[in-house]
Every structure is written in C-alpha cells, then in structure tokens.
C-alpha cells in the first residue's frame, strides 16, 4: 500500500476502510541469511538497507517487545550534523543527507522538520570554540552560521539574555538541524523492510547466540531456535547482555536519560535550542508540547526511569534560560536506557566471531544516526568492508588507543560522557 | 535515591560523585588485555552491581555501594578502604 495525497483524500471520503496494516506478523522461519537482534531504529534501518541496497531479503529482525518500544520511541528527536571530529563529522553528515531524502525513499511521513538548531554560548572562549566547530561543519559541507547576541535576539527574543551567571553572547546556528517524529521513523523503516520481504518478529527475545568453532550459526529465542549465516547485535542499552551471550564484554555502561513534555501550547518555540552550560535543550512538538531534557542521571541503570535530582536540575536550567516557560505544566517524564561508551562515540564493527556483527554505543545521540547507522552497518554486514562514511567506529579503538573519537575532549573514560 | 554512608549515615544521592563499577585494579605489568578489561570493558549487569561512589559533599570517603540497576534499590555500602574486591 502506497501513501499519497490522493489516497488520504479518498480514504477520508470513504470512511478510512481501505488502510491495511503497515507490516505482516509472520512466524519465524527455521533459517535466515541475516538475523538482526533488536527492532529499534538502528536494527530496522539496517534491515531496510540490507534489503534495498544489497539485495538480501531473507532477513529477520528479532524484537523482544514491540517495534518502537525502546529508545527509538523515547528520545527527544533532535536531528543534526554539527560534529567536529573526523569519524563523526562525515558520518553524521551522511546521516543528515539520508534524512533529507527519507520521506520520499520510504514513502512515509516521518515529519522531518529542519527548523534549525541553535547552540548558545556565554563567554568569549566558548564563542571561539563554536566558531571553530562551525568552520569544521562548513568544511564538511554542512551549514553553520555564527550568530552574535543581536542575531540570537532576533530569532529567540524570549530568552533571558542578561542572566547573571550565563549571559547570552550568541549562538551557533545550524539551519538544517531540526526534529522528526520518532515513532514514525521506526514505523517507516519497519514498513519499508517488510515490503522488501524482511520478517519482523515481535515478542521474540534472543536468549542465546549459537557459535561453533568461532563461527556464528544462529540464535536461541523465546519463539524457538533460528539458524542464520550472519547475526547482527543492535540492542542499544541491552548490548552488554546480548554480547555476553557470545561470551563478549563490550565497552558499554548503561545509564538512564530522562526527558519531559508539557501540555500542548500554541506555537512559541520555532527552533531547537541547546543550552549546553545548563545541560538543557528544548523544542516544541507539532502537537504543541514543549519537549525538553538535560543530562543523564550519571549512574548505571536499566530502570528506564530516573530520579528527582535531575528533574529538578532540568527544570531550574529551563527557568534560567527562558523564564516564560514557568507556567507551562509538565505532563509526563520518562527515561530510556543509554548505551554509553568511554569516548561517547558508537561502535559499528565486526567481532572476533565470524559472522557476528556489533552496532552499539549510541550514548544519548543515536536517533539522528538511525539512517546512516543502518546504511553503513548493512554495508558492513553484506560486504564485510566498512562503509566509507563509517570507518572510525571500531570496537578495539579503546584497547589500542588508536582512533578514539572523544568529541567532548574529556578523555576516553567511562562516566565522563 | 539515598546512599548509606558508613560514616555519615543515609544521605541524598546529590552529595555523591559516581565513579562506576568497583573493579580490582590489575598489577602494572598485568598486560594489555587485563588493562583493557579494567579500564574499558564492563560487565554492566542488569541487576545487582558493586560500584564506587565518592562522598564529596560529606566525609570525603570512597564507598563501595551495592545497588540494583533494574530497581534502583540500594542494598548496602561499605568503605572502599575496607571492602574486598
Ligand atoms: C530521553 C532520551 C532522549 C534522547 N534524545 C535524543 C535526541 O534528541 N537525538 C538523538 O539523536 N538521540 C537521542 N536519544 C538517543 C537515541 O534514542 C538512541 O541512541 C537510539 O534510539 C538507540 O538506538 P535504537 O533506536 O536502535 O534503540 P532501541 O529503540 O532501544 O532498540 C533496541 C531494541 O533492542 C531490543 N532488545 C534488547 N534486548 C533484546 C533481546 N535479547 N532480544 C531481542 N531484542 C532485544 C529492545 O527491546 C529494543 O527495542 C535519546 C534517548 C533518550 C532515552
Ligand atoms: Zn560520608
């Protein structure tokens, strides 16, 4: 079933009786060419690009819950390409280009909205650092505009510019940055993969990985054993448990990141605003809710909910930046399980086990990566070579010390990112 | 979340700095694999875990806290100087 304006009109006039489910609900086959563990954004996009670009269609995505129930449906949906270091820069640039063609490619409205992202700065030193980052973005072929205070005042007049602690000196404006509808991204990729023959198996938890003589040959699941020539682990916050099934320890700590949404309000915030000094960022969803968040809670957690100190901190930072939001009522808050790595950058790599691949370590920024991650991981799985835009995300960079991608410059160490 | 500091008693999480998994430090010449394991690789358990917290808003002691990562229940804490790895 294809979506089109005509189709929406026709269904609207005929009682919406013609819509069909977005994907099938098949039973597991005994064997696949590729089994993908994890039906989040990254697992689904991997399946989609394997089928679309590499002609592999005998594929299953195994999801222990339901499609979209993990972080892909819990994030604050910011999509941007404002990275600084080699390894990250070209990868996120590749991702943003895929985002820009995604709705046509998937024939699906993911509500990608390039409303522009502004990173605020509050000192001369920070201005220099952002100027440098902006130059790196431009050199990468992406867009960046350094705004002075007047420039920010023009587009974000409601900020507290003369705050005593963090007066606003200006901002780095990334016009092509923005947001997308997170669930729709999962659904769009799921539908696209399904249409190309990929089996999406929900309520199918992987409980073991079968390895013989250093070669993977299948998985054990709650819906029975499934044989596979290649197995890809794409389970974000659960990477340590799944990797342990293959006898591996990975450089990941799982932490909780919280987010918040207010009641629906009239349009007031037209951009994505990032207030790094206060660990606060905000945008307004198309339904009108102000969507905002801050830093991780800073302790290991699988609870998918956080504690009050961060709630308080985020609210205080929001009030510091834009006192006008004080009257908005917070409707909901929630948390997701973040796969944190020592340098804050991800892993897209093979493992030492033949046919077993690993994609993890997305920290708090893996939503924007969904298109490129799947695209590059599919390339690696199908061809056993790194995609040219994703050569740096190697699993052994910590052991060797070579090629660590520490965007924040704080040192490659757990608990610093 | 409150952590039971053996010196100060039960205190708000905000008084503490979180370091991470409490691991046994390898000998300096233990080799690359042992150090890779210690510095970077993690068991990252979903369940009970032992981790280092520093009471910087209190007595300044390093603690080994046993905590459940699925429920956030705090099971106990001892001084790192007295804890066995
Ligand atoms: C509050 C919050 C805000 C965020 N904001 C942003 C943002 O603004 N921009 C951005 O770029 N990123 C953001 N992120 C990060 C982003 O959401 C994640 O990095 C990304 O979604 C992780 O990849 P995924 O979608 O594949 O993960 P998930 O959706 O978590 O997918 C992993 C899947 O694996 C499944 N699984 C686990 N174990 C098994 C098993 N044994 N067998 C079968 N299946 C299994 C899980 O059920 C899950 O569905 C945010 C995250 C959170 C929590
Ligand atoms: Zn104390």
Question: How would you describe the overall organization of this protein?
Answer:
Chain A is α/β, with parallel strands linked by helices and 417 residues long. Chain A contains ten helices and 18 strands. In chain A, the strands form three sheets. In chain A, strands 1, 2, 8, 9, 10, 11, 17 and 18 form an eight-stranded mixed β-sheet that branches. An eight-stranded mixed β-sheet of chain A has the order 5-6-4-13-14-15-12-16. In chain A, a hairpin with a 2-residue loop joins strand 10 (215-221) and strand 11. The N and C termini of chain A lie far apart (43 Å). Chain B has a single domain, classed as 2-Layer Sandwich (Folate-binding fold). Chain B is built from one helix and six strands; from the N terminus they run βββαβββ. Chain B has one helix at 32-39; strands spanning 2-5, 9-12, 17-21, 48-54, 62-68, 74-79. In chain B, a hairpin with a 5-residue loop joins strand 5 (62-68) and strand 6 (74-79). The longest helix of chain B is centred in the middle third of the chain and has 8 residues, at 32-39. Chain B is globular and about 40 Å long. The model of chain B has no long low-confidence stretch (mean pLDDT 96). The chains are: A alpha/beta (417), B mainly beta (85). Bound molecules: flavin-adenine dinucleotide (FAD) and zinc ion (ZN). Zinc ion is lined by residues 5, 7-8, 55, 58-59, 61 of chain B.
